[in-house]
Amino acid sequence: MNIEEIGLWVLKADPGSKDSIDAHNALYSKMEEVGLGDALIDYAHGATEKEYTMWAVQNYYKVMQA
Hints:
Blueprint: H1 3-12, H2 18-33, H3 37-44, H4 49-65
C-alpha cells in the first residue's frame, strides 16, 4: 500500500475502531521506512488527524526525493 492509500485509510476509518488502529499503525510503519516514525509521533501531538496525516504524506515524499 502506498502512502496516499494509507493516509486515506487513516482519515476514513472510524475513530477508535480496530480499523483505525490498523491504519495508524500502517502510517507509522510507512514513516519508519524513511526514518520519520518518531517525527510523526512528535508532530501528531497537538495536531488534528488530518494535519498529521497530510504532514506524513508530504514529508514521506520529501525524504524519498532527497
